[in-house]
Design a protein that fits this description.
By secondary structure, the protein is mainly α. About 70% of the residues lie in helices and about 0% in strands.
C-alpha cells in the first residue's frame, strides 16, 4: 500500500518495538502487521490487517509511557486506517 502514513509507521514500528517491546510485547505484532500492510495492495487483505491492528492496539490507544516515535507510529497507522475506510 503506497501511503505516506504507512511509510512513516513502517519506519517507526521497528524502533518502538526495540525500545518499548519489553514492556509492550504487542509491538512485535504491530510491526508485523505494519510491514504486511506496507507490502500489500489487496483491499480485502488490508481490511483484515487493519481490523487486527485495531484489536492489537486497542483502537490505537497509547500507553502512558509512549514516546514521540510511539505516538507518531500510532497516529500514522490510525490515519492510514481512516483513509482506507473513507
Amino acid at each position: 500500500m503506497k501511503n505516506p502514513y504507512i511509510d512513516q509507521a513502517a519506519e517507526l514500528a521497528p524502533l518502538i518495538e526495540r525500545v518499548h517491546g519489553e514492556h509492550h510485547p504487542e509491538l512485535t505484532r504491530v510491526r508485523e502487521l505494519t510491514e504486511a500492510i506496507a507490502s500489500t495492495d489487496d483491499g480485502s487483505e488490508l481490511t483484515e490487517l487493519f481490523a487486527e491492528l485495531r484489536t492489537v492496539t486497542s483502537d490505537y490507544t497509547l500507553p502512558a509511557d509512549a514516546c514521540e516515535a510511539y505516538t507518531g507510529a500510532y497516529e500514522n497507522l490510525k490515519a492510514a486506517d481512516e483513509a482506507l475506510s473513507a
